From TrEMBL:
Superkingdom field: Bacteria
Protein name: N-acetyltransferase domain-containing protein
InterPro entries tied to this protein: Acyl_CoA_acyltransferase, FemAB-like
Pfam families: FemAB_like
Length: 388
């Protein structure tokens, strides 16, 4: 695409651009849109090949200059690893004689964490960049483009572009200036406070828990974590999304932005959780165990994450997709947003109607969940936080 003032081009990989050029388009606050993270997925074979995630980043260049805007985009021939489910849309379109795949996915693969999807330091280029994605779809027979887990500040960009908006609910922990985990416990109801203390005590019995950052994370730890991850991936998805090499590459490139929490028994790692550290958030991503120990999952994934966020001075913990069990552990319901461009007018109208009904249901769920947080009534936050 070329309108005389800028040119949009499609690359074969994020790794086709120098890291400095790609990272200059971001503010550096989100680890998942960094060149290090996205190129590690490419180099490790976690995307590309037969994964169904074909890298297709869209980059805008100024005439005679380098990139000034980009979309982390992928050609998809399925809807796996997205966490915003559109299988019903695909089925309906196929029944109507259409072809839903391939489609364009503007996202971080396998990562249900909020973040920027339009990468640019020039806000005037944001909507034109989305127009380039629309043109790519129309000119190449793609049914649609989907941007998932959009950070709140960028939702208006997609609204201005006229994309359909969809909402869902995640559970995030909010740091309201807590000095310690006990300080956080102090705002919970008495019964919930006792429950959490009992869970932590049970989880920590007969194991040693270590939180590792940076050079503390060694290849032996990645070997152990890979075993945990494979077990969880096989049970949840049928096969793990990331390859073993991905963890080593991520460890080499961005270990200082990763927090690995491991549980040891008799000197051997038996369970672990992996988090990524952003400027203002801790992102819980992967977990696994080779033992079945009550409450160990909650300890490694949720309570240790709260401890770390307080220690690191972070504003929140994003604990990933789904999981109503997080509610009782101080994680609050937060609405997340995705945006969708549908090429065919008829399909677009049908999906718009569907989303209007779905939003009403999400709003009802939000109200129900807000009434079941574990906070003391006098300490309860304002209802209905919207991550927009």
């Amino acid at each position: 695409m070329n309108d005389g003032s800028f040119t949009a081009r499609v690359l074969g990989a994020v790794g086709d651009l120098p890291a400095a050029d790609w990272d200059a388009l971001t503010d550096g606050g989100n680890p998942f849109v960094s060149h290090a993270f996205l190129s590690a997925l490419e180099r490790s074979g976690s995307v590309g090949g037969r994964s169904g995630w074909t890298p297709l980043p869209i980059v805008v260049d100024r005439p005679g200059g380098g990139p000034v805007a980009a979309l982390p985009a992928y050609l998809k021939d399925h809807s796996q690893g997205e966490y915003v489910f559109d299988h019903a849309w695909a089925d309906a379109w196929h029944r109507a004689g259409g072809s839903y795949y391939p489609k364009l996915q503007i996202a971080v693969p396998f990562t249900p964490a909020t973040g920027p999807r339009v990468l640019t330091q020039d806000p005037e280029l944001a909507v034109p960049l989305l127009r380039a994605a629309e043109t790519l779809c129309r000119d190449n027979g793609l049914s649609s483009a989907h941007a998932t887990f959009i950070e709140p500040a960028q939702v208006p960009i997609f609204e201005r572009a006229g994309w359909l908006l969809r909402e869902d609910i995640q559970f995030h922990w909010e740091n309201r200036g807590y000095a310690s985990f006990d300080d956080f416990l102090g705002v919970l109801s008495s019964r919930k406070r006792k429950d959490l203390r009992k869970e932590r005590a049970r989880a920590q019995e007969d194991v040693e828990i270590r939180a590792l950052i940076g050079t503390e994370i060694r290849e032996e730890h990645w070997d152990a974590f890979w075993e945990f991850y494979q077990d969880t991936g096989a049970r949840k998805w049928g096969r793990p999304y990331l390859t073993r090499q991905a963890f080593s590459l991520l460890g080499e490139a961005m270990a200082d932005r990763m927090l690995m929490v491991l549980a040891f028994s008799a000197g051997e790692a038996v369970a672990g959780a992996l988090n990524f550290i952003g400027r203002d958030a801790l992102y819980g991503r992967y977990w696994g165990a080779r033992i079945d120990k009550p409450f160990l999952h909650f300890e490694l994934c949720y309570y240790q994450a709260i401890d770390a966020a307080i220690r690191l001075g972070l504003n929140r913990v994003e604990a990933g997709a789904q999981g109503g069990h997080k509610l009782a552990r101080g994680y609050e319901p937060v609405r997340t947003v995705s945006a969708h461009y549908i090429v065919h007018d008829g399909l677009r109208a049908a999906i718009a109607d569907y989303l209007a009904q779905e939003r009403a249901g999400i709003a009802r769920d939000q109200i129900w969940l807000d009434g079941r947080t574990p906070f003391r009534k006098a300490e309860a936050p304002a209802p209905g936080p919207v991550d927009r």
